[in-house]
Structures are given as C-alpha cells and as structure tokens.
Write a structure and sequence with these properties.
The protein is elongated, with a radius of gyration of 23 Å. It is an all-alpha fold. Helix 1 runs antiparallel to helix 4, helix 2 runs antiparallel to helix 3 and helix 3 packs antiparallel against helix 4. The protein starts with a helix and ends in a 14-residue tail after the last helix. The chain is 78% helix and 0% strand. The chain contains five helices and no strands. The relative contact order is 0.11.
Length: 168
C-alpha cells in the first residue's frame, strides 16, 4: 500500500471518529438546549450557551480518549487550554448564528431555534475540526518519524561495491 493511500485512510478514519463523537455531541447539545428551554425561562441564546458548554465537555472526553487517543499526550494543560480556546471561538460561531436568526430576523419559535442551533453547530464544526486537528490534538512527532523510517526502509537501496573494486 502506498504511503499516500494509508494517509488518506487515516484521514477517513479520523473524520469518521470525529463525526461519531460530533454526532453524539450534537444530541447532547440539542438535548440540553431543549431541556433548559423547557424547564427555565432563560432567553434562547443563554440556554444555547449552557448547552454548548456541556457539549464541549462531552466532546473533549470523546476526542481525547477515542478520536485522538493516539496523539501526543504530553502537555495536557496546553492541550486543554487550546481546546477551550478554539471551543470558545466555535461557541461564538454557533451561537452567533442563533443570535442573528433570533434577534436579527425574529425567528424564535422552538422549531426555528432548533434549526438555527443545528445550522450554527454545523458551521462551527468545520472550524472545530480544522483547529482541533491542527492545533490541539497534534500528531506525535515519534509517529511521524516512525512512518518516515518505515517508508524509507521499504525503498530499494543500492548494493555496496565489493572491496576489491573500490579505488583506494
């Protein structure tokens, strides 16, 4: 198998795992959002922010211990700080869409709120996937070096000249 295709397979597996955790996170996010809206009088965006924070915590556990479990585990404080930083940007993107729909266009029925919450999640997910894989859950340098060494070892190497044919 060519290194390129194995890299593509790894990316496909990564996207599938990210998507699985993400879909579960969407259910958590929408579930908490609707629960908070049902049991409290909080405005729609505040309820959404609470739901997003719960989903962020859920997703971190899923990403760290399943999607990116093979990634560098050193520097957990830095990892968590970056995760929270990029998640906060995602939170603003996600809830900015809901805010614009609710307060900018007056689309605030329960169905409309859920639709725009979902749209916001989708837009923010694109940003989160890029930022998490690029900055938060980085590939271990040892894995990269190992894959390069394996690829190099599979290349044909020229045979050394016999000693009798070498010029002194």
């Amino acid at each position: 198998m060519e290194p390129r295709s194995s890299g593509l397979q790894r990316l496909v597996r990564e996207v599938a795992k990210f998507g699985t955790v993400g879909v579960a996170g969407i259910f958590v996010n929408l579930g908490v959002f609707n629960l908070v809206r049902h049991v409290s009088d909080l405005p729609v965006v505040r309820a959404s922010i609470i739901a997003t924070v719960v989903a962020i915590a859920f997703n971190y556990v899923g990403f760290r211990y399943w999607t990116y479990r093979d990634r560098d585990k050193g520097g957990r404080t830095k990892e968590l700080t970056l995760f929270l930083f990029f998640s906060a940007i995602g939170l603003v993107i996600e809830n900015g869409v809901l805010y614009a729909a609710t307060y900018g266009f007056g689309w605030d029925s329960p169905l409309q709120s859920n639709v725009f919450k979902f749209v916001g999640i989708g837009v923010a997910t694109l940003f989160r996937f890029w930022s998490y894989r690029t900055w938060v859950f980085r590939v271990q340098p040892a894995k990269e070096a190992e894959s390069i060494l394996v690829a190099e070892s599979k290349k044909p190497h020229p045979e050394p000249e016999p000693k009798s044919q070498r010029v002194p």
